[in-house]
Amino acid sequence: MLTALLFGALVNLNHPGRYVHWGFIQISVANLVVIGLMVVVFVAAILVPFHRKRGGQS
Amino acid sequence: MSGAKFNPDRDVADWTGPYRPYDLVKEFLIALFVVGLIIVGLTIVFSSPDDRPVTLQSWSQNNPVDFAQTAITELDGSSGVAAYGPPYVPSSAGASQQMGFFAPERWFGVHIPINTAQDYVIGPLRTLPDQPLLTAYLNTYRDASSSQQSTWTAAYEKVVANATFQSDEIRVARGNYGPVAGIIRSLTTMARSGALDGALLRSGQFYDTNYTKPLLFLANGSYLANLGGNQHLQGSQWGMMNETGNYPGQAWLWLYTLWYQVQPMKSSSNGDLEVWVIMMALTLLLALVPFIPGLRSVPRWSRVYRLIWRDHYRTG
Amino acid sequence: MSVHTDRPTSATDPSLADQWTAKLRKAAETAFPPERLLPDAQPSYVASWVYVFGVLTLVSLIWVIVTGCVLAIMGPTWWHVSSVGLFVNSLHLWSVELFFFFMVIHLWGKFFMAAWRGRRRATWVSGVVTFVISVGAAFTGYLSQQNFDSQWIATQAKDGINATGAGAFFNVLNFGQMLMWHIVLLPLVVVVLTGLHVLMVRHRGVVPPFADTPGSSPPSPAAEVAEQP
Hints:
heterotrimer, A: alpha+beta, two-stranded antiparallel ribbon, 2 helices, 2 strands, flat, C: mainly alpha, Cytochrome Bc1 Complex, Chain C, 62% helix, disordered C terminus
C-alpha cells in the first residue's frame, strides 16, 4: 500500500487534457490553475500581514 | 556623473533608519524544508507523465499507408526535410526563413547534411542482406536517368494516397512505377519489422545518441502530427505551453506561443524568425527596464508599493 | 628577502600588500564583510511576505539540482523502467514547476518595488538573465526525457531554432548533446548567475522604499546620490 502510494499517483492526470477556449486564447485547465494560483499567491503575499515579534524572528 | 539630478525611479537614498533582527539561515532552512514537503506532496498526488515514444515501427504498423506516403516524398525529394533548407539541405533546394536582408538560417548553412533519398530509403534498404529482388529494384533505380526516376516517383506519388495495406504489404493501383513500388513496399516492411529504426539511428556505427534522422522522418509524416494534435500540442493550439495529458506544462512560454496565434506571424512563412526577433526584443526590454524612462516609472505610478511597504509608511 | 618567523600579513609587512592574493582578499573583505555577507538584521521595511519569494526560488533550485543528481546517478533510462525512478523524476518535475512559480512571483514583486533603484541595476539584469537561462535549462530537460513529449518538443522546436541559424550547432534532435547541455553546461551557468545575483543583493542590501511623500523628494544633502554604474 505504501509502495502504491509512493510510486503511483493519487490523481491520474494521464487522461486527455481539458482545455479552455476564450476568444483566440486556448489554455489547458492545468496551466490556468497554475497561473491563477500565482496571481492569488502574489496578491496574498502583498496583503497578508507580516507581523514579527519585537526583537524576535518571523 | 556625480551630482546628477535625483530620479526616484532610478535612485534611492541609502537607508539610515532602524534595523530589526532577521535570521536568514533559519529562514533558508525552513524554506528548504517546506518546499521539499510541497514537492513530495505534489509528487505523491500527481506523479509525472511518460507517454511512450513513437517509433518508425509503431508508425508503420499503425498507419502503413501514411508511412508509404511519407517514404515516397523522401525518395523523390519533396518531403518536409528535403525541401527544408539549412541546416539539412542547401538553401537552393529549400526555403529558409528571412526578414529582409536578415537571413541567419542561410548564413550558417548546412551543418547537418541529409540526403533523404539516400539516408531514408536507399541506404537502409541496402543494409538488408540476401534480398535479390530488392537489390534488383535498387540497381534499376540507381541506373535510371534522373528524369526516368522522376517519372516513376511522380506516378507513384499520385496513387499512394489511395493505397491500401493487404496481406502484409502496401498495394497501389496498377501503373508504371518501375522499381519504385517495390522499393516503397520493401521499406514499409522493413519499418514494420523494427529494422529501420536501428538502421537510421546507427548509420554505420555501434553507439549513437543522435536521433536526428529517425526524428525528422517521423516529423515528415502525419502520424506523429496527429498524435500531437490529439494532445493539444500543435503550434496553433498554443501547444508550446502544454504537456501531455492534464499536467501543467511550460506556462512561462505563454508569450512566446502567443505571437504564433496572431497575424502576420500566424500565416507567415518566416513566422519562426519573426516570433524569435519579437521575443528577443521583449526580453531585452525586460532586462533593461531600469534604464528605460517611463517603463521604470510604472512601479511608482501603480502604487502597489504602498501596499508592500504599508507598515513602513504608517510608522515612517 | 626576509625570513618570517610568525605568519606574515600585509598589516605587518606592507610589501605583501602588492600581492594579487592580498589585493583580492582585501577587495572581498571590503565588498563582503562577514556581517554583510550573513547579516543578522534587516532594515525595518523588510516586513512583507513578498520578500520570501527569493529564498523560495533558491531552495526550489536546490531541490531541482538534488533530484537531478539522483537521476544522474542512475542514468537517463532509469525513470522509464523503475517506479522509484518515476518517483524521483516526478520530484524533479515538480521542483522545476515550483522553481518557475516562485521565480516569476519574485520578479513581479521586485518589479513593483522597483528593486533596481540605488545602484541595483546589475542585480535586476542578472535576475532577468538567470530567468532566461533557466528557461533554456528547462527546455533541454524536456528534450532529454526520451519519450513522446521529448520527440514532439524536438521536432517542433527545431523550426524556431533553425530559423535563427543556431540549429546548425544546437541540434535539439541530438539527445546526447541536449542531455549534456542540460546536466552540465546550463546548470553551471544558472548556479553561477544565481550566486552572483545573491552576492549582489548582499552587497547592496535590500532596496529601500520610495520616499513616502506622493511623488518624489530628493535626499538630504548628507545622503548623496552616488554615480550609477
